[in-house]
Design brief:
alpha/beta; about 350 residues; single chain; three-stranded mixed β-sheet
């Protein structure tokens, strides 16, 4: 089997770091490279994975990215750094295209990490377009100006096609569980909510008992490694406008999560009363959880009706379901008590995007 060179951006993050750990542990060893933003992050990743090349770089600099992909002869890029702004992805795709021209036309791959918020009815997604084998790209293109994640997905897919780069989009629901990366092991959604419960002494819920899709971090990572293994084996998998992979392992209900976390927090003596109250408004929820108001529903209450078929058709087999999640809900509290808060720039980027 030919050896591949794989670059993971955002390798100090919750998603990127966990993907990196999984790829390093694969039996078929390939050349793995990782980008991080700071020297401290680089030191942490090198300490955990001494056998890989860690690059401390500003990935917004086009020339630096082009140099990295050219010098290290990168075949596959897993973009785990940002799903809102398309500019970084466009630069990575451009660099991959030039790499393809120099390697005699051998396929190069770009795996983008997107979010489920763009596929929720309350964010403008049509009810009738639910299956991932349907006209997902065409619908996103028609609605691309109404939600930033959709616009980014469309721009990436179209540009990759023009540049001769094979692209895949992995769509993330709520991701939970302690990560396995070297720097940040906490997700955003549940840890922020857990902290709001502890700090206010009370769990709260939204007025509507919304169902949302979710995946444990280990199951999400298994999807990325499955896709990489298919690429390396040169299997003919859906790509480009057909290459959407929704990492939807199971659904959870907002009220059940709130009540379960409240009960677990009370059992630990962190709160005195496990009664769950209703948020007065999105503004009060935003203030308690420290995010811009415009993203409250997107992060915690954007119910979806999407049906994921494509990942399962490739052999994806999640190990966590709703029952296992609820039975182990205390893990989310334990992770927050151990680690504090996520070492992530996501929340600050949300404020920047909201102009706050």
């Amino acid at each position: 089997m030919a050896q591949y060179s794989i670059l993971i951006t955002g390798a100090a993050g919750y998603i990127g770091g966990s993907i990196l750990s999984a790829l390093v542990s694969l039996e078929d060893q390939h050349n793995i490279f990782a980008t991080v933003r700071t020297f401290k992050q680089a030191d942490a990743v090198v300490y955990q994975h001494p056998g890989i090349t860690v690059l401390q770089v500003d990935v917004t600099h086009e020339k630096e990215i082009e140099h990295i992909i050219s010098t290290h002869e990168i075949d596959i890029v897993i973009q785990a750094a940002s799903s809102i702004d398309s500019r970084l992805s466009i630069q990575l795709i451009s660099a991959l295209s030039k790499r393809k021209q120099r390697n005699g036309g051998k396929n190069v791959w770009f795996i983008h990490t997107s979010g489920l918020g763009g596929f929720c009815v309350q964010n403008g997604w049509p009810v009738e377009e639910r299956e991932d084998t349907g006209p997902i790209f065409e619908t996103e293109k028609r609605l691309m100006e109404t939600f930033p994640i959709r616009k980014t997905d469309v721009e990436i897919t179209e540009y990759a096609e023009v540049m001769g780069v094979d692209s895949l989009i992995v769509v993330l629901p709520i991701i939970y569980g302690k990560g396995t990366g070297a720097w940040n092991q906490l997700s955003i959604n549940l840890p922020i909510y857990v902290k709001s419960i502890i700090q206010s002494g009370r769990a709260r819920k939204f007025a509507e008992n919304t169902k949302v899709s979710a995946s444990h971090i280990s199951d999400l990572v298994s999807l990325y490694t499955l896709l990489v293994s298919k690429i390396i084996a040169r299997e003919d998998i859906p790509r480009g406008k057909e290459g959407y992979y929704f990492a939807l392992a199971h659904r959870i209900e907002g009220w059940e999560v709130a009540e379960s976390l409240s009960g677990a927090a009370k059992a630990r003596g962190l709160i005195a009363d496990s009664t769950v109250e209703v948020w007065e408004s999105d503004a009060s929820a935003a203030e308690a959880m420290g995010v811009p108001e415009m993203f409250v529903q997107v992060l915690w209450n954007s119910g979806d009706e999407m049906i994921a078929r494509r990942p399962f058709s490739l052999g994806w087999s999640p190990k966590w379901d709703r029952k296992r999640f609820i039975d182990n809900i205390d893990d989310e509290i334990a992770a927050v008590l151990e680690l504090g808060e996520a070492k992530s720039s996501l929340v600050s980027s949300l404020f920047k995007f909201a102009g706050v």
